[in-house]
Each structure stands twice: as structure tokens, then as C-alpha cells.
Fold this sequence. Notes:
Elements lengths: L2 H15 L12 H10 L5 H14 L3 H6 L2 H8 L5 H19 L7 H5 L6 H12 L8 H9 L8 H11 L5 H15 L19 H4 L2
Helix pairs in contact: 1-11, 2-8, 5-6, 9-10
Amino acid sequence: xxxxxxxxxxxxILDQYFTQTPIPLDHxxxxxxxxxxxxxxxxxxxxxxxxxxxxxxxxxTPYEMAELPVEEIQSIxxxxxxxxxxxxxxxRLSQILIDKHDGTVPETLExxxxxxGVGHKTASVVVNQAFGIPSFPVDTHIHRLAYRWGLSxxxxxxxxxxxxxxxFSEDTWGxxxxxxxxxxxxxxxARGHKVDDCPICSVYGMKSRLIK
Length: 212
């Protein structure tokens, strides 16, 4: 079986289990999505969604956030972890959005990645989920699943992203990205994974990879 054939069959399984792919992070516009994705680094989506209402109640636009003391931002987002760095990033990127982008979130990966605290994965999520631009965000969880399922060699997330973009059609990248996330949480976790109970790993996964 070729990698493409395997990806095609995995796509059918993902569609069977997750026909709907709601965006996990609560937001109302590109800016609040950007902040939420930034906060999600090394933090669960559930925790981010618990924290952002209080933050966005105080500041839901770059202009409001830039006026908020960094110490107050840090106090609010502390449960998300890495609060010192994240609060500084949120404050600085808000000011940059005002100074360079008229207070709006840019729609290109390059412009987003130039913002403090915004890496390629965060930028990819924002362009896809906020603007509908095809992208395939790859974090450590998707990287792990792609390796387990034999869709990539697991060298690094850059290689994994390139491999996944080759085997899934461009118009499905955003959906498949979310399907990977939902499927991994339900059937294919990093720890305590039961190969025989996983609809994909039981058929396509290599057990030698899974017991590590």
C-alpha cells in the first residue's frame, strides 16, 4: 500500500468519526483567535477557554490590550502557564498590530510569524481558521499521529507538514488538521494508548512505534 492509498483510507475513517470539526478555541474574530492560539502553547484548549472570557472582557481588541498593563494580562492568563512570556507577547503584538497593520490581524503567514510569540503553527491556524486560507498546522500531537500511522517519517514537524500536504487535498487541510486533533484525543492519546481499540492504529499503525 502506498502512502497516498493509506492516507485516502485514513481520511475515510476520520470522516466517519468526525464529520463536524468545530474550532476548539472560543473566539469572536481573528484577533481573539490569535490570542487564544498563542495561549494554547503547552496548555489545553479547555483551560484556554476557561481563561479567555476574563481576558477578553477586559480587552478584546489590540487597542484595548495595548492599554492594559502587562502585569494584569499576566495575572489573568496565569493558569495557562508561561504567563510572563505570553503576556509580554500579547502586549507587544497588540501594539505592533496597531502600528503596522491598522489594528487588524494580517492574513499572511509571513506577517503573522513576524509577530512576537507567533510561530509557524500558530500562524497556520490563524490563516486557516480566521481567513479560510489553506494551511495544515502541525503541532507535536499531529506530528506524533502522522508518524504512528506511517504518513511521515517523523524527522520533524516541518517534514511532517510537507508530507501531510502531499497526501491530503488542499481544500481539506483545515478539516483534516482538526480531525487529527479530535481523533487523537478520543482514540490515539500519547499515553495509555490501546492499539487494538484505535480504529486507525489497529489497522495501519506499527505497534513497535506505539509501545515507546
